[in-house]
Amino acid sequence: MTTTTSPTATRWERLRDSYLLYSFKRDLIAQVSLLVFIVLVAAAVLAPWLAPMNPYDLAQIDILASELPPFWIDGSDPAYVMGTDSQGRDLLSTILYGARVSLIIGFGAVAMQAALGVCFGLLAGYLGGRVDAFLMRLADIQLSFSTLMVAIVVGALFKAIFGGATYSAYAVPLLVLIIGLAEWPQYARTVRASVLAEKGKEYVDAARVMGLSSRRIMFRHILPNTLSPIFVISTVQVANAIISEAALSFLGLGMPETQPSLGSLIKSGFDYIQSGSWWITLIPGLVLVILVLVINLLGDWLRDVLNPRLYKG
Amino acid sequence: MSSTATSPAPQAADPLLSLRGLEKRFSLSGDFLEQLKFKGGKLVREQKYVHAINGVDLDIQRGEALCVVGESGCGKSTVARTVMGLITPSDGEIHYGGERIDDLSSKALMPYRRRMQMIFQNPYASLNPRMTIQQTLEEPIRLHHPDWSPQRVRDQVAEVMASVGIAPDWGARYGHEFSGGQRQRIAIARALAVDPEFIVADEPISALDVSIQAQVLNLLMEAQQERNLTYLFITHDLAVVEHFGTRVAVMYLGRVCEVAPTATLFATPRHPYTQALMSAIPRLEDERPQHLRLQGEVPTPVNLPSGCVFHGRCPHANARCRSEVPTLIATDEGGQVACHGVEEGRI
Fold first, then answer.
1. Contact criterion met (CB < 8 Å) for A205 and B128
2. Does the residue B266 lie in any domain?
């Protein structure tokens, strides 16, 4: 495929002729998933301009308009298309803002996992020996703590030391930290396995003979050749991180209700399902499911494309 | 054939590279816990090693091409990788230009890295798939000449590309866009980019198509003449040795059995193993000497035989061969051979 490109091909021409784009054009599921994903991300990013009201602004909230149903049910108010929640916040606006929080935490946590996991994986795989044994046992220990346990311990400590108000202010970076710390071994193990395979190849020996430093060999020579599996697990991990955040928020360990994420929104509506206000839980739940589903579908497609056994890049 | 001398051969002063008693063992038994075994009701620590090379002495003179030959698993590649510092020797010393280099830190080794380079066996794995040819060739120059201007680096790359017959417009392409022979030219260009004086070539043509082998071999010989290079050339192809080598070292089971100038070795091999090896070369002659067939297999390098490593398969072996390790002694023809039989005049 790539042999047909001229040596002077630009980056764009390389992409245009690549197998990645070719397989994307032939995969309807991937196209629909990407479209839905882009729409959701765009809506979340542009929430301050798209949303009818700002759910963080207490002045705009009318407690008398609480628990209004969505537009297709009798008793709805045309001002609130998706209805309102128990505090009278417009559900559509809250979902848009909530999806933004969920996506920020998802991508932030994955960036942190990747940074930690890639560094540890490279070190363990390339240096081997005791460094390898130490880092991989550390990964085993980390994996034996579930994300929830890490969150409970860190969250409880933080709340106890700094108080609830400080916790609310730093909830997003704290959740990024917790989910990032809890899941780095996924990256470390995958990267280590790839590094072990690459390390035996002669281009690494050539770089060592040249006299390059270990750091440069790891990051400039080996890392670029392990990117495919990193991309693939990144998609899965973004979905996982969003789910983790939702689960933590649902348990009351995540985002406070004043800055709702999708998870804390689902939780806030959960108490009202019995009283008939099912939409407060169901609609954000659906958005969460669709978001995670399209990310996973994109990840599946990417894994098939980048699988070195099916396609040699 | 009784002409032997017991004193070491008069060597030309100051060899470029000399190996003294080089040994490399690879542990087979894993970490400490895996080494503990129960034997006869007792807990004992058991360690097993593969003796890849055991006691190699070699001198490489400036400007020569020393070929190392031997069958698979005899330690040829381990010698090459140890010389380049890719493997730390378990024992012995490596001297380069009179200085000991095997115990230097990677920082202290940097000046030597520029002077010694390596060409690898598999051209499909020796180029980084994510780097363009230009990047691949610029990297060693930038590393060893950080003070050079970008233009000077590009000029050096262009010069080295021209000298190995690479078109300048290949620079923007990636390694996988080329054939094996073209890739090996690129790998040679990378080795030559820093103007080394010594090149270790680890079976550089054995992965190539036969029609390409001669091209690459001629390229290496041209480079040797133009740049006054010294080669340590690892191969198992005796035809290549005859064409390329100034001297030949024959290895068997991690030891050097014979070193001699190429013509001498091919005309009058002294060591019984070399004789068997030479008789195995296919020739288009009617009155070719009888093919010497060796009995048995190469012993495992895990449990080395006592005495001469070749005694189990040698038709001339006696009690001394089974107990005493032979050392290299000079022959009248200007070579060295490690054989009690030759020393005693029996062979």
1. no
2. yes
A212 with B118: Cβ contact below 8 A: no
Q: Specify the number of domains making up chain B.
A: 1
Domain that holds residue B293: 246-347
pLDDT digits (tens, 9 = 90+) for B236-260: 888 889 888 899 999 999 999 999 9
Tell me the one-letter amino acid at A213: S
Which B residues 62-121 touch A at CB under 8 Å? 81, 84-86, 106, 109-110, 113-114, 116-118, 120-121
Q: Do A202 and B190 touch (CB under 8 A)?
A: no
Domains in chain A with CATH codes: 2-306 (1.10.3720.10)
Question: Is residue B261, in this structure, part of any structural domain at all?
Answer: yes
Beta bridge partners of B199: B117, B231
B211 pLDDT band (50/70/90 cuts)? confident
- Interchain CB distance below 8 Å, A3 and B174: no
Burial class, A15, CB count within 10 angstroms (exposed 0-12 / middle 13-18 / buried 19+):
exposed
Could you tell me if B189 lies within 8 Å of chain A, comparing CB atoms?
no
The answer as to whether B299 is a domain residue is yes
> Which residues, 6 or more positions from B133, have their beta carbon under 8 angstroms from its beta carbon?
B127, B166, B170, B171, B172, B173, B174, B175, B186
Report the complex ipTM: 0.85
Residue entry with tokens 């069958």 = B71
Contacts of B140 in chain A (CB under 8 A): 210
Each residue's pLDDT tens digit, A144-174: 888 888 888 888 888 888 887 888 888 888 8
- By three-state DSSP, how is residue B112 classified? helix
Global pTM reads 0.81
Cα separation, A115 vs B39, in Å, equals 48
What's the residue count for chain A? 313
pLDDT averaged per 10 residues, chain A (length 313): 48 72 84 92 87 76 73 74 77 87 92 94 92 92 85 84 83 89 90 92 92 91 88 87 87 80 83 79 89 90 70 40
**Which of B110, B122, B130 is closest, CB to CB, to A211?**
B110
